[in-house]
Specification:
Elements lengths: L2 H15 L5 H7 L2 H18 L1 H4 L31 H37 L1 H15 L3 H11 L4 H28 L2 H8 L4 H37 L11 H10 L8 H28 L38 E12 L2 E13 L4 E5 L6 H8 L7 E10 L2 E2 L5 H7 L4 E4 L13 H13 L3 H14 L5 H5 L8 H13 L5 E5 L7 H18 L2 E6 L2 H7 L2 E6 L2 E7 H6 L4 H8 L39 H5 L5 E2 L5 E2 L4 H10 L1
Parallel strand pairs: 3-8, 3-9, 6-7, 7-8
Antiparallel strand pairs: 1-2, 1-4, 4-5, 9-10, 10-12, 11-12
Helix pairs in contact: 2-12, 3-5, 3-12, 5-6, 5-8, 5-10, 6-8, 7-8, 8-10, 9-10, 10-11, 10-12, 11-12, 15-16, 16-18, 18-19
The protein binds adenosine-5'-triphosphate (ATP).
The site of adenosine-5'-triphosphate (ATP) has 19 residues, from helix 1 and helix 13.
Length: about 650
């Protein structure tokens, strides 16, 4: 995206870069309380699983001559009301308890995580529907439903715990949804979509690993609840065979004889308390480690001021420029309009943009910040952010309108028909995955290749973009390479699908001058080799001169001039183009001051009815503000949205 959007992406990616893969595991290792909790839980689970090997007695064996005994060598934790060994009953009882906890946690995760991912990633209607469903489930009292289940399936502890888990799923769903909502705004998710990866793959590969921390925290917290619930049911005698050892049953038994032998409550009570505290501590530690270790009613142009209703789809009769072309364009854009939707009002941001891109051609899209270049690019890629709507237009590729293709069909075309590289390539790479893996994934998607073939092609692509040590770079994570190298990787990724058109949004702005020249040279070479067309978004007239065949100048959501590159420098036919050129440092004549353009681009809500540049234009007259100015053919295959092209021509000839 161009400057504005990229700055936001840049900032986010810097934050993410500090989080290295496995950082929160290392964070966990650095927190002794969490480690102790993990150790205690592991020991308890192991001891219970191995109960038949280590328990000193049969948990059901009675010794009526030795009831309610305190700890002794033969019975380290004493005996119960029937003389059964307490330690053995705790060990065997723990098996059932941990199995129940596992069933509850599995149910909560199996339902809550996928639905949370889908709600957060898909957003909109799906999110709303799942949100409503969660509200309904959360309103059901867990104990009542579990009692109903136990009435239908008496003493069926598995059914009770799965039901409890299902009722807890909305809590996990909400946490995962929140995390996924943030992740879906990350630039590397957009990049993965542009590369053509399916939604399922993106969720599994790039979103799920990011929500792992919150999911583990939720799972440990829920485990503590599930343990309490299970022991509660056993305490009430609702789930287990009365002779079977259970922690809850042991507490119930101890409470009946508390006056005679208070000790009996300690072993079962303590083991329950220790396990719950261990789950809680572990959850807290993982959360800390994850955080510390580480997305009025008038038609447009029909009057000044106020918000206006966006124009409906109305591809204007855009005259086509240039000499007659025998080839068909790679892409034809007609009347593309995008609006910001706010309640029932819409404000146009891109207003009837139209142009062709021919095979092998590089078209520069130039204009000041806020003119609508990035929104245009995102609309072509069908990646408009939330709140922005395409309100009209078509994007023809071959004989189909890309904007009307079903989402799934278009997803398959991303990366092959259209590829994309941005100003901040590092932001578009997943910081947790090595470059080689990211490339293999995209190659496998496009070529249907197996692991070995995908790896070979990934290395070949890295070599194609002049990376000297592809094997080392493939093994690196994005934060381990320089910005210039990352842009080469991004270009290699874009080439993986052999695209017919590459949309490059300020691809060199974030790079230093030497690297800029190298990347531009690389793009030129690759274009020569592959024949792909490039739509280059830039502020830099030097880059336009270096790389482009044709220029589109954009102002306040409209194309205001279109011409061949050689014409734009010699004879700009729109005062805005002329102002941009005169104020550009790289084009100023030696010793001459830069001529800064007065004023600024009007906000989309303030676009005037007539010429949108009139307020800043030295040539503007009353006729310029009276009515919308059409983009007109001004001869020699050039287009201009200006009533003063004759004067401009005369002035340029004189100057
Ligand atoms: N997500 C959004 N929500 C609301 N308005 C937006 C959004 N994205 C862009 N805009 C608005 O749309 C207009 C065009 O923005 P866009 O980013 O396309 O401009 P640009 O020409 O690419 O500028 P830059 O070079 O600074 O990126 C601006 O007025 C901008 O504020």
């Amino acid at each position: 995206m161009s400057a504005g959007l990229d700055r936001r992406l840049d900032e986010r990616s810097r934050r993410r870069r500090s989080r290295r893969p496995g950082a929160w595991w290392r964070g966990l290792a650095a927190r002794p309380a969490g480690l102790v909790a993990l150790l205690v839980l592991n020991l308890l689970v192991l001891a219970c699983v191995g109960a038949s090997l280590i328990a000193p007695h049969d948990p059901r064996a009675q010794d009526l001559a030795n009831v309610l005994a305190g700890p002794s060598a033969g019975h380290p934790l004493g005996t119960d009301t029937l003389g059964r060994d307490v330690l053995s009953r705790i060990l065997f009882g723990g098996r059932r308890t941990f199995l129940s906890v596992a069933e509850g946690v599995a149910a909560v995760l199996i339902v809550g995580v996928p639905l949370g991912l889908v709600a957060g990633y898909a957003g909109r209607l799906v999110d709303q529907l799942l949100g409503r469903l969660s509200d309904v489930v959360m309103a059901i009292p867990a104990i009542i439903l579990v009692l109903v289940v136990l009435a239908v399936l008496p003493q069926n502890q598995d059914a009770a715990m799965v039901t409890f888990g299902l009722l807890g799923a909305p809590g996990v769903l909400r946490v995962v949804r929140g995390a996924a909502l943030k992740v879906r705004e990350e630039p590397y998710i957009t990049a993965a979509r542009v590369a053509g990866l399916s939604h399922a793959r993106i969720i599994a590969r790039h979103v799920l690993p990011r929500v792992r921390g919150p999911v583990i925290v939720q799972a440990t917290i829920f485990a503590a609840y599930a343990l309490l619930f299970e022991t509660g049911l056993a305490y009430l005698g609702l789930t287990a065979d009365p002779t079977a050892p259970t922690w809850g049953g042991m507490v119930a038994e101890a409470s009946t004889v508390i006056q005679q032998q208070s000790w009996l409550l300690w072993p079962s009570g303590m083991v329950i308390a220790i396990t719950i505290v261990a789950f809680g501590l572990l959850g807290d530690t993982i959360r800390d480690a994850a955080v510390g270790g580480g997305p009025g009613g008038k038609p447009a142009g029909a009057g000044a001021g106020g918000r206006r209703q966006a124009r409906p789809a109305e591809p204007p009769p855009v005259p086509r420029s240039g000499t007659p072309r025998r080839e068909s364009p790679v892409l034809t854009v007609r009347g593309l309009s995008v609006a910001l939707a706010d309640g029932d009002r819409e404000t146009l941001l891109v207003d009837g943009v139209g142009f062709d891109v021919m095979p092998g051609e590089t078209v520069g899209l130039v204009g000041e910040s806020g003119c609508g270049k990035s929104v245009t690019a995102l609309a072509l890629l069908r990646l408009l952010p939330r709140g922005l709507l395409r309100t009209g237009g078509e994007v023809i590729e071959g004989d189909r309108d890309l904007l009307r293709l079903p989402g799934r069909t278009f997803d398959l075309l991303r990366g092959s028909a259209l590829a994309y590289i941005s100003q901040e390539p590092q932001a578009a790479l997943d910081p947790m995955v090595t470059i080689g893996r990211q490339m293999e994934e995209v190659v496998a998607h496009h070529d249907g290749a197996g692991r070995a073939a995908a790896r070979a092609r990934a290395l070949e692509l890295l070599a194609m973009v002049e990376i000297r040590d592809p094997v080392r770079v493939a093994a690196s994570c994005p934060h381990e390479i320089s910005g210039g190298m990352a842009q080469r990787v991004a270009i290699a990724l874009a080439l993986a699908g052999r695209p017919r058109l590459l949309i490059a949004d300020e691809p060199t702005t974030a790079l230093d001058v030497t690297v800029q020249a190298e990347v531009l040279g690389l793009l030129r070479r690759l274009q020569g080799e592959t024949g792909m067309a490039i739509l280059l978004i830039t502020h830099d007239w030097g880059v336009v001169a270096d790389l482009c065949d044709r220029t589109l100048v954009m102002y306040a959501g409209q194309i205001v001039e279109e011409c061949a590159v050689e014409d734009v420098y010699d004879r700009p036919l729109h005062p805005y183009t002329r102002g941009l050129l005169r104020s550009h440092p790289s084009l100023a004549a030696d010793g001459e001051p830069l001529l800064a353009m007065p004023g600024q681009v009007p906000a989309p809500a303030d676009w005037p009815r007539g010429c949108r540049f009139a307020a800043r234009c030295p040539l503007a007259g009353r006729d310029c503000t009276a009515a919308p100015i059409p983009l007109a053919d001004v001869g020699e295959g050039r287009l201009s949205r200006c009533l003063r092209t004759d004067r401009l021509l005369v002035e340029e000839v004189r100057s």
